[in-house]
Amino acid sequence: xxxxxxxxxxxxxxxxxxxxxxxxRYRKNAFVFSSLSSQFLENKQHFWSTVPFHYGLIGVLIIxxxxxxxxxxxxxxxxxxxRLVVLELTGLALALIGIVGLGMAMMRRLNVRTVAVVTTTSxxxxxxxxxxxxxxxxxxxxxxxxxxxxxxxSASPYLWSIFSLDPNIAYxxxxxxxVKLHIINAWLxxxxxxxxxxxxxxxxxxxxxxxxxxxxxxxxxxxxxRIP
Amino acid sequence: MDVRSQISMTFHLDKCIGCxxxxxxxxxxxxxxxxxxxxxxxxxxxxxxxxxPSRWEDQDKYQGGWELDKGKLRLRSTxxxxxxxxxxxxxxxxxxxxxxxxxxxxxxxLFDAPEGHDQPTARPISMVTGDYIDVKAGPNFDxxxxxxxxYAENDVNLEGLPEETRQQMFEIQRLAFFYxxxxxxxxxxxxxxxxxxxxxxxxxxxxxxxxxxxxRCRGWRSCVPACPYKKVYFNWxxxxxxxxxLCYPRVETQQPPACHHSCVGxxxxxxxxxxxxxxxxxxASLPDDRLAEAQRDLILDPNDPEVIAGxxxxxIADSVITSAQESPTYRxxxxxxxxxxxxxxxxxxxxxFYVPPLSPVLSAAHHGPTSLESDxxxxxxxxxxxxxxxxxxxFGAGNTEPVRYALRKQYAVRMxxxxxxxxxxxxxxxxxxLREADCNPDEAEDIYRLTSxxxxxxxxxxxxxxxxxxxxxxxxxxxxxxxxxxxxFRQDTIRV
Lengths: 228, 496
Description:
heterodimer, B: 6-stranded mixed sheet, two-stranded antiparallel ribbon
């Protein structure tokens, strides 16, 4: 029963919160969508925390996404042991880089007075949740080997069963405790996401890569302007 | 020809007394909120001096503005190519140390201190952390320190000068300095706008004011290094950038911005000019020594029938064209060629122009009063206390010619007026000075009148904003927007 609650009910609560709150906040109070950078207050430690954290985390998330979207390709890749080891080690290294960065970020927020001043409770909650999640991920990788393969064969179908509104918890019910904790914490992070600074992920500025350089806005429609 | 209208400013530096009234007027209206204490959308700098933030002109450090890359304009800091790598940590981002940590004083101890033998003191406390701090720098700590080893000697503009000239500038008892009030230039080719990944920064089409949409800013902080004038500031509390808004709620109701309105020396002139947006890229890509003069080519003659037709075609209202014809900026910059852009080599085409200062240049050039015995009328300008080259570094993008021209004309007008009122210059000399300075009596009178006698209506020629028509067209209901002109947040500016 608790499995059903955690792996079949919690995901929908989390996803509902994620979408409803994010969209509502964007429409009603877009001001809160910000990276809330603190680089202005402290520059040196900022580099050594934010850069490894972001690259590490984004790398790991991309590998998760590959497992989710193209599990068969991943399994094909892993069918050669050498390639499997390369993938596993890459994932592990990225996760460790991310953890080091996140650890530095937490130290920075504790120790640098000016940065501590602009750190809110929600910042700390999400920092700790992310740290727990990344540590759990590393523990899973170390204790239960070849995670990339069984992610593709078990976790991916589980997630797809959630997305297709037909939750099948059989895939995860049999998983070891560490994996279960990793999954539960993931749903919790998704649920809490729209209440935190993580909102900046949703407004990553991709359009900049193709928009015109200068932005000029008219307060009226130039074409239909009436000339007095 | 793509005719646009732009609110454009001219600062007559010969009249600036460095009183900082402009800065305080601005501060009291816009930047007395949490997170903005350190911001000075308008500030006054002593030159030579390091300015605010410290050595802002040093683009090797801040990487502001544009550079030419094989003839093509490119942002020096994070542009499109580098944004992916620099989005997490911007390598050119200045920090609070480059500005100063804002502070107040612990005034309560003046009242609460127990009775004792000493006077109680109010120690400085940081407005960021609330801790006691040692104040090391402030926004105008170089004020009036024209000979300071800490400030003046580190002026970036001294770098190109020969050692001899530098020595001469710092000779005891012969020091000279002048003031440069600075604010957002509302550039025609703004680097901040081009650098903003979110598209939060934009230039208003109808009047050229550069604004930053607080609801679209995501704190990616590309704009702060990109602006070569360091006039986009990062609000450390809200995590978003802010900048001068040219008091647009005032400008839209035909009042001059607070900094202009409060100016004690009446050095500030503001009016709209018509310019050709098609020329922006070409003019910004010229070689350095041509940039200062080339910017005049951007501005169009508002009396030219072709320009008027082009303006009408672009939907520019008659009232805006009329006000462009009266614009003091147009006169100073285009007609009289006395207004020059500050650091045109940053290639942002700043739309704030400066009339370079004559007084500190001339005074005490030869340990004595101005001499008119020489055949060379303008020799004072050539061997001035503040070398022409230094001025050229500020106002001529390194080229002394446009600066020399502007100074000679001012000097000639001064001689002309001395002939008229004081009488220690004879007509022949005055006329010769005017001729050599490419001026004539009529123009000299016009320059004199606008510089010295102009009243409020002459100094500030602001076109009606026509906002009511824009509102009618967009929503059809002007009542809905009644009383809404202005700057403000619909929500509290709190962190998530």
